[in-house]
Amino acid sequence: MSGENPSSGPADESNEGNSPAVNTTSNDQIDAISRRVQEALSMGRRHRFWETQPVGQFKDVGDTSLPEGPIEDPSPLSEVRQEPYNLPSPYEWSTCDMDLEETCTEVYNLLMNNYVEDDENMFRFNYSKEFLRWALRPPGYFRSWHIGVRVKGSRKLVAFITGVPAKIRVRDQVVLMAEINFLCVHKKLRSKRLAPVMIKEVTRRVHLENIWQAAYTAGVVLPTPITTCQYWHRSLNPKKLIDVGFSRLGARMTMSRTIKLYKLPDSTATPGFRAMELRDVPAVTRLLRNYLSQFIVAPDFDEDDVEHWLLPKENVIDSFVVESPDSREITDFCSFYTLPSSILGNQNYSVLKAAYSYYNVALQTPLLQLMNDALIIAKKKEYDVFNALDIMQNETFLKELKFGPGDGQLHYYLYNYRIRHTLKPSELGLVLL
Ligand code: MYA
User: What is its EC number (predicted)?
Assistant: First the structure.
């Protein structure tokens, strides 16, 4: 998922009683202030590229006279530019075929070495090849939307951006959009205005499929977020998290008290809790569609989407259903995806294994219990941390299940679609990877 600090943990594992990670240290206050200053600066400064794009502009924030919906009308396809945009002369466009092992490895290596890091450059997202294949090849995907930039001659891959198609509902309108992700420019080629060319090129290729809207997330403030969410982290392996600097031992806490605080039972509590299977797709689709209908912005999943996005895939996506022991009906559902981060410059550890909460629907089982079962499974599978955004109904379990607020913020954006009011995170039902 995209564009957020890979892993910046609860600032402080301090604990009086049961509430973990209360941000009490002055460092955290400084971090929070620095973030707000950066956001204010972003709103105040010129955005040479984004000012030219059909996105909500900062000057229009609060102007409720502007209509909701597309900002620009679609053009006739014959008017969409046929030739790729020009790159600086040493570089060339290269459509990346993720079915090819060699290409997938090149993309993996580019991202492993150059993708999103936390503010302190301690962690960097390390999406696995299997994950990338899953994320980039949903039903109806376009290979032409997997765009690389190579050095002419050496063919070295130095930049990447992708789109995948998705039906996204905004209030009562279902809009076919592109979800844009994995924008990455090699560290040595930063600040040369390559990103705007790449964004224009992916836009052109999306337009060629007669699609005119997009959704994306980023850790940076751009014109203009539809909502801003916060990551919360639940320690599963607190000793490692503290050793690698992901979290800190709280004031008046010992390591053994901290380990005890985060201990989880050995087995799940909900009768009928089991891994999702292919035969569950229709029931899970019904549950999810019904659940997601309450949010202002959410995906409009059909059975093919559910099969792709939610059927378990080892080390990529884990999903569980609750099958009622009496009626055999599927009553509840929960899921998380696997996104490790590289730990930069630590002698003892190189990878942080993180689970990210995906879609959860609790009808019969209390959400708190369902998510606690997800934590138990994640711990058994040796994840170090379980992350969740404060979107959907997640706020109802975060504190109680000992998640602590991280320092990563994630901003959600729509391209060429205006929303009149900024959403609350709890009004958002969309998770981007
Ligand atoms: S979010 C993940 C982004 N990736 C990373 O953070 C990885 C590490 N960083 C890098 O690789 C580079 O720093 C990147 C920028 C590539 C991010 N989203 O080339 P530049 C604007 C959008 O000189 P660089 C994800 O993948 C910046 O404000 N714009 O900068 C979702 C400035 O514009 P302006 C961004 O640092 C991506 C311009 O780029 C982002 O060398 C969604 C500077 O360009 C960002 N994350 O490269 C993309 N960061 O002057 C939009 C910087 O105006 C999709 N910028 O402020 C839009 C929809 C398109 C499809 C539409 C279809 C209809």
Answer: 2.3.1.97
